Amino acid sequence: MNAAELAALIDHTLLAPTATAAQVQELVAEGAKLGCYSVCVSPNQLPVVVPPQLHLATVCGFPSGAHAALVKVAEAADSIAKGADEVDMVVNLRQVFEGRFDLVQAEIAAVKAAVGTNVLKVIIESAALDDAQIVGCCEAAKAAGADFVKTSTGFHPAGGASVHAVKLMRETVGSQMGVKASGGIRTAESALEMVSAGANRLGLSASAKILAELAGN
């Protein structure tokens, strides 16, 4: 995979709560220059104007996932109304740890209804879960009509993406859904490992460094 092919899988990301509008504009310019698939920003930054070749993603219930379901639904709907193409929502981890995957599915379905035909990615915080919980989250997301499952927020102390989690997520959802790896991916080698494991989208903040490394610059 060359740098241009990898760039086409990247959500170029800036989710620091201290990010300014000027920094978001720098992100957009860099994402377009690099040939990334999208830029991903916090919902308080919306609306954001992006060039036609670049998609706009945001997050929902971020980063804890501990928001009430109706808050996540309202946040997702507001983001779509403000021009977001894709929404990355965090699952309710309490429900995951209690084994209430019926509730996890219901919440995802409610957010998907708010997102409509736009893309919904479900962040499961895989580093904090065991294999059975990862599978349960992925099955719930699939049953709820989500478009992607995603490893991590990048904010959880348990860590970010792993090759093992990505493989398990891909095995669980099959070819019908996307798998996004995010959190702690800082080298070209790591990015390519995630793609080989089954990821077809990457959430990266170090996009420029990784692509330059892959290009041999």
UniProtKB/TrEMBL annotation:
<keyword id="KW-0456">Lyase</keyword>
<comment type="similarity">
    <text>Belongs to the DeoC/FbaB aldolase family. DeoC type 1 subfamily.</text>
</comment>
<comment type="pathway">
    <text>Carbohydrate degradation; 2-deoxy-D-ribose 1-phosphate degradation; D-glyceraldehyde 3-phosphate and acetaldehyde from 2-deoxy-alpha-D-ribose 1-phosphate: step 2/2.</text>
</comment>
<dbReference type="GO" id="GO:0005737">
    <property type="term" value="C:cytoplasm"/>
</dbReference>
<dbReference type="GO" id="GO:0006018">
    <property type="term" value="P:2-deoxyribose 1-phosphate catabolic process"/>
</dbReference>
<dbReference type="GO" id="GO:0004139">
    <property type="term" value="F:deoxyribose-phosphate aldolase activity"/>
</dbReference>
<dbReference type="InterPro" id="IPR002915">
    <property type="entry name" value="DeoC/FbaB/LacD_aldolase"/>
</dbReference>
<dbReference type="Pfam" id="PF01791">
    <property type="entry name" value="DeoC"/>
</dbReference>
<keyword id="KW-0963">Cytoplasm</keyword>
<feature type="active site" description="Schiff-base intermediate with acetaldehyde">
    <location>
        <position position="150"/>
    </location>
</feature>
<comment type="function">
    <text>Catalyzes a reversible aldol reaction between acetaldehyde and D-glyceraldehyde 3-phosphate to generate 2-deoxy-D-ribose 5-phosphate.</text>
</comment>
<dbReference type="GO" id="GO:0009264">
    <property type="term" value="P:deoxyribonucleotide catabolic process"/>
</dbReference>
<protein>
    <recommendedName>
        <fullName>Deoxyribose-phosphate aldolase</fullName>
        <ecNumber>4.1.2.4</ecNumber>
    </recommendedName>
</protein>
<dbReference type="InterPro" id="IPR011343">
    <property type="entry name" value="DeoC"/>
</dbReference>
<feature type="active site" description="Proton donor/acceptor">
    <location>
        <position position="180"/>
    </location>
</feature>
<feature type="active site" description="Proton donor/acceptor">
    <location>
        <position position="88"/>
    </location>
</feature>
<dbReference type="InterPro" id="IPR013785">
    <property type="entry name" value="Aldolase_TIM"/>
</dbReference>
<dbReference type="InterPro" id="IPR028581">
    <property type="entry name" value="DeoC_typeI"/>
</dbReference>
<keyword id="KW-0704">Schiff base</keyword>
<dbReference type="GO" id="GO:0016052">
    <property type="term" value="P:carbohydrate catabolic process"/>
</dbReference>
